[in-house]
Amino acid sequence: MSKNLSIITLSKNNHKQLKKTIESTFCLRENGTKQIVIDSSSKETFKKNKIYVSNKKNCLIFYQKPSGISSGFNYGISKVKKGWIWILNSGDDSIIDLKTKPFLEILLSKTKAGAILFEILIENKRYVRPPFFSLWPPNFNWIPHPGSIINKKTYDKVGNYDKKYKIAMDGEFWFRLLGSDKLTIDMISFPIANFKLDGTSSKNLKLKNKEILRINFKYLPLIIKRFLNQVLLFIRVSIQNIKLFL
To answer: N or C: which end of the chain has fewer CB within 10 A?
Structure first.
């Protein structure tokens, strides 16, 4: 499995957090998982990061001129030819250990799903996933990227992250993914990452809410269509059940 998984890590001017994230992926990289660091740091920090990353097994580092999180995600995805992709940013920790790794190996090698949703910890506190039915629309119960492992074929089908969004790009992406009738998703209720809550999404709530509102209006026709389809399905099944008693 491990050779079938690539970890994408975005980093910017924080060598200590990058080291923390890379150290947390050791047991995966030992078995062949590739970790791709997309670094938008200053020249001095990038040089320091490059020396560190180059000495770590199955780690690669690429410089990208600062151009937003979406561009960083997309650049990292472009470096993966096939297999599964896990976005684990600098400062976040993998908590996959020797006990959970075999299960993950089997899951990634056997599943036919296009994406897998896990739970995460948010600063060491378990974030329990909301009930299944409330995952739609996806921006009402945010699906965090540290808890999502997505197949490269899925990105090829639904597209990468929209660069127009500075914060809510993953929310917009999940509308496209969950809105597709051609993709299936596995949901697993154990955490795989410890998420560090100090990014732009937690600091710039005004912009975040503005982008979410924009997404809501963009996908309003899809939301209405899905709602009407569910109502019609309920009516159709109910009529069939009633006929059985007549």
So the answer is: C
Structure tokens at 28: 């995966």
Going 153 to 84 to 78 to 129, the CA torsion angle's sign is: positive
pTM above 0.85, yes or no: yes
Rounded mean pLDDT of 87-108? 90
Total H helices, total E strands in the chain: 10, 9
pLDDT tens, position by position, 146-167: 999 999 999 999 999 999 998 8
Domains and CATH numbers, the chain: 2-244 (3.90.550.10)
Within 14-140, strands assigned E span 34-39, 59-63, 84-87, 93-94, 115-122, 125-127
Strands 34-39 and 5-11: parallel
Burial of 20 (0-12, 13-18, 19+ CB in 10 A): middle
